[in-house]
Amino acid sequence: MPVSDRKESELADRLAEVGRRVGLAMSDALDRIRPAINAVAEVAGRPEVRSVVERAEKLLRHRPCLCFCARAHPDDAGICEPFDAVITRPHSSDLFGEVDVPLCAPCAAARAARDFTG
Question: What one-character-per-residue DSSP string does 10-25 give?
Fold first, then answer.
């Protein structure tokens, strides 16, 4: 067997051995953490945990209404749904320029009525 073929064969054997060792190490690590993963999955599936997660997801979906009601529609005080913005409306700011402001439905309607009546 020529020298170059022998070197290629040795390299292939070494790479195969390294791959085997890496695979064993990963398998051993997974075997060690599998009980913890199973415990977390079991807890996450409990109804009371799912309930908490669902409530948190619902809260995170809500966007605050940033209307500044006292300035934007002072005649309609108290109509705001502070944590239920459903649309955005452009607002011009000296500091930030044109920005989209999230608004709840009552504030958006009050602003539209105020703009319509002038």
Answer: HHHHHHHHHHHHHHHH
In the chain, the largest separation of any two C-alpha atoms, in whole Å, equals 96
DSSP strand pairing (97-104 vs 85-93): antiparallel
What does the angle CA 95 – CA 98 – CA 99 come to, to the nearest 5 degrees?
90
3-state secondary structure of 104: strand
Question: What values do phi and psi take at 73, rounded to 5?
Answer: -150, 70
pTM: 0.47
Burial-class residue 32 by CB neighbours within 10 Å (0-12, 13-18, 19+): exposed
Q: Which residues of the chain have pLDDT under 50?
A: none
